[in-house]
Design a protein that fits this description.
single chain, mainly alpha, 23 helices, globular
Length: about 450
């Protein structure tokens, strides 16, 4: 590793540390993430020829620009997906679409509600991506839980359940989709062998967190839900709900049909829902329409949490720099040498690392480093590939910024990095280890 690479890694680690102690420094994490992104790429430009071999000196600037634009394009698809999905779910929520769902899930017992939320999140995230699932569930939680401290616990469990639910499904997480498309795992193989470990990885944290919840639910403030449902009829609210949530479920289908990126499908759903709600508001009386102006898409777009969007931009582009300089690939090779091919140790550490850096480049690096063997642990549906699917998906729950689900919940509920680390990280880690132990038992003791 060259001196310049070490400097880039040092800047990343320093920036990450400042994000972790945001509650102490009082400096917004988005500002730190943007500085980290710019600093990493500025250092990269000191000697780009070290990392872009074979490029003529006269074309170096253009080559660097092409690399950055490629990463920025990939990052932007995530950001537009995030903005579109957040607006859709906010629109459904503000116009009373989640009211009847709240009735189906509501319980006076805090612990019963926790298990219901965990189960629903786990199941939905196997179909939707974990980011969209988290947005939907947090909006439902706001209709169910009045106490903020309790809601932080429920929201944290949503992050864990969303990541675990996506790990066993070939379409539930970006990394499992990558592995499935590459042909190193099959749909039947990953579901049959990773389902039980994934269930355990969310059941253990749910049980531990349930111990901290006692008593009955505090009632919501009087009129809190009426305000969201006062403009539309019951039929209109259900139309908004099914168009919004049904549309999000349709996004993977749209992608498979058109082969367009997921954010295009989200923008399609947003456009349809926007049009329908504008038609509904057009037929309201003038007074009702005036009162509902804040619930229309044009007003909601002005209230998007841009600090979360910019934070996500900074983090992903900083990680892209690490990927470009080869640090992630180097790390994967080093792990393989250090642990002498012990798949449980290698994938286990990759899972822990996926809570620090984006799991997508980590998994991409592993697919590039490790060839598929005709038989054994590295064969299709072999131990290594299935463990990689589990660890890369579930491992992101250990830090609030370790997954897209965590980042969006962090923005919606204003969960601090430090609070999550103190109260949730150890719980998520125990669930992560328990799931790996169950997988080991499946393979070694039961011979599955």
């Amino acid at each position: 590793m060259t001196t310049l690479t070490i400097c880039i890694v040092a800047v990343f680690v320093m920036g990450y540390f400042c994000i972790a102690i945001e509650s102490v420094t009082k400096v917004n994490k988005a500002a730190v993430a943007l500085l980290m992104f710019v600093a990493c790429w500025t250092l990269f430009m000191i000697a780009p020829a070290e990392y872009l071999a074979g490029v003529a000196p006269g074309r170096m600037a253009q080559a660097v620009s092409d690399v950055m634009e490629r990463h920025l394009g990939s990052t932007s698809t995530t950001l537009f997906f995030l903005m579109g999905a957040m607006t859709i779910v906010e629109l459904v929520d503000q116009n009373g679409g989640f009211n009847f769902v709240r009735g189906l899930l509501s319980s006076t017992s805090k612990r019963k509600l926790l298990w219901r939320i965990a189960l629903l999140t786990f199941l939905i995230s196997a179909i939707l991506d974990n980011l969209t699932t988290s947005i939907v569930m947090v909006m439902i939680l706001r209709k169910l839980v009045a106490d903020r401290n309790d809601r932080l616990v429920y929201a944290s469990l949503v992050v864990i359940a969303a990541n675990s639910g996506g790990a066993f499904s070939p379409i539930g997480d970006v990394t499992t989709i990558m592995l499935w498309n590459k042909g190193v795992i099959t749909a039947a193989g990953v579901i049959s062998e990773i389902l039980v470990p994934s269930v355990v990885s969310v059941a253990v944290p749910a049980w531990l967190l349930s111990l901290s919840l006692k008593g009955s639910m505090a009632p919501l403030a009087a009129g809190a839900e009426a305000a969201a449902a006062s403009d539309f009829t019951e039929f209109q609210r259900k139309v908004v709900f099914f168009l919004g949530v049904g549309g999000l479920i349709f996004v993977p289908v749209f992608k498979s049909i058109t082969h367009l990126p997921p954010f295009v499908g989200v923008l399609l759903v947003l456009g349809v829902l926007w049009t329908v709600t504008e038609i509904f508001y057009r037929h309201l009386s003038h007074c009702a329409c005036q009162g509902g102006m804040q619930k229309r898409v044009t007003a909601m777009l002005s209230r998007i949490d841009m600090s979360t969007i910019l934070f996500f931009l900074g983090i992903l582009m900083a990680v892209a720099c690490l990927e470009t300089v080869g640090v992630l690939t180097m790390l994967g090779k080093g792990l393989n040498v250090a642990f002498d091919g012990n798949h449980y140790m290698v994938t286990g550490i990759i899972g822990v690392l996926s809570s620090v850096v984006d799991n997508v480049p980590l998994v991409a690096g592993c697919m590039g480093m490790y060839p598929v063997a005709p038989a054994g642990d590295m064969a299709v549906d072999g131990i290594f590939w299935q463990l990689l699917a589990y660890c890369a998906g579930v491992g992101g729950s250990m830090l609030i910024i370790g997954s897209a689900a965590g980042v969006v919940v962090m923005g919606l509920e204003k969960i601090s990095f430090g609070w999550y680390m103190r109260h949730i990280t150890w719980v998520a880690f125990l669930g992560y280890l328990a799931g790996m132990l169950v997988y080991w038992a499946e393979k070694s003791l039961l011979g599955l």
